[in-house]
Amino acid sequence: ISGYSLVIQARDSGTPPLSSSVTVNVDISDVNDNSPVFTPANYTAVIQENKPVGTSILQLVVTDKDSFHNGPPFTFTILTGNEEEEFTLDPHGVLRSAVIFKHMVSTEYVLCVQAKDSGKPQQVSHSYVQVRVIEESIHKPTAIPLEIFIVTMEDDFPGGVIGKIHATDQDVYDVLTYTLKSEQKSLFKVNSHDGKIIALGGLDNGKYVLNVSVSDGRFQVPIDVVVHVEQLLQEMLQNTVTIRFENVSPEDFVGLHMHGFRRTLRNAVLSQKQDSLHIISIQPVAGSNQLDMLFAVQIHSGGFYKPAYLIQKLANARRHLENVIRISAILEKNCSGLDCQEQHCEQSLSIDSHSLMTYSTARISFVCPRFYRNVRCMC
């Protein structure tokens, strides 16, 4: 307990008795009676041979139970095991290489490191670090091509994470890093550590081919990443139809069914090859294992097909559609729970273009705006 706050009252013996109170704050001063603590108590690390001087090997983690002025900053020192000065330990506790290691020269080093706190008198702790030198990479990284589909309202894309590159390496200790060609960094970014792709705001309609690569420090491999951006028109929302699927998650739909269902849906509802099918959004139905998909069909000559026309087409082709994925319902109007006649139920859809949902799999990612369905009786 670092302190106490006491309220003390003095009361006299008069009639009536009078009193007064005062607050007394008692601060408990800390003495430096706790040593730094390494977490974990001892360390094991590896470094590949032929890595450049200054390569980070290990980050020491140290805590102290004393108050702040008796704890950090810590002073780190290598006490033993570094007689040939193969290692350096910086003020932040990062162990780095000071030479280019060779697996044939030595395969293992054991260092005793010390952490000293800032109290008076200073307290110290020790830890042992075992560093193994392993052979350099012999396998190239492998990465899966990624295709990303972004649906957004007109000129209103807020940006955010749109997908993740999946890469592996057969060399157990390889650390993979991801890079993006500099000329594309005004529109996209790639997290160098985990391969997440971030799109900046204001993307225009169209197709983008990203020059992304993954490296294990020795080999660098290009990755095919294609981004398709489709901007919605406000008129689409007035001509949408919802297909509700049973027992499917958004990720499974995107990764397993979307391409096949889109193809089957085109064959079912397009009157002319030049017509355009637009998948506007997919979204789980709250409190269920169902999934809603919103779509509209744009007529080549202009305008959109009316929902009633599309629903009739879907009804005729439902058996073929269900060969791809099970359909729970086809909705133009969703009057569930409303005590009014079907023809007197009005539905409206609203899109929150600043609330994006990203459904990402290893090969395909779908980014779409969140939507809200409003229904009311008109009777």
What's the N-to-C terminus distance? 67 Å
Please write the string of helix (H) and strand (E) elements. EEEEEEEEEEEEEEEEEEEEHEHEEHEEE
CATH class of the domain at 37-134: Mainly Beta
| Beta-strand residue percentage | over 45%
Q: What coarse outline follows from CA principal-axis ratios?
A: flat
**How would you write the strand order of the largest sheet?**
16-19-20-13-26-25
Would you kindly provide a written description of the structure presented here, covering whatever features stand out?
With 379 residues, this protein is mainly β. The chain has a domain at 37-134: Immunoglobulin-like (Sandwich), CATH 2.60.40. Helix content is 10%, strand content 46%. The chain is built from three helices and 26 strands. The chain has helices at 234-237, 250-269, 307-321; strands spanning 3-11, 19-27, 37-38, 43-48, 56-59, 62-63, 75-80, 87-89, 94-97, 108-116, 124-134, 142-143, 146-153, 160-164, 167-168, 177-180, 188-190, 196-199, 206-215, 220-232, 241-245, 276-284, 291-298, 327-331, 345-360, 364-377. The strands form eight sheets. A six-stranded mixed β-sheet has the order 16-19-20-13-26-25. It has a four-stranded mixed β-sheet with strand order 4-11-10-7, with no helix packed on it. A four-stranded antiparallel β-sheet has the order 22-23-21-24, covered by helices on one side. A hairpin with a 7-residue loop joins strand 1 (3-11) and strand 2 (19-27). Helix 2 (250-269) packs across helix 3. The protein is flat and about 85 Å long. It starts with a strand and ends with a strand. The model has no long low-confidence stretch (mean pLDDT 90).
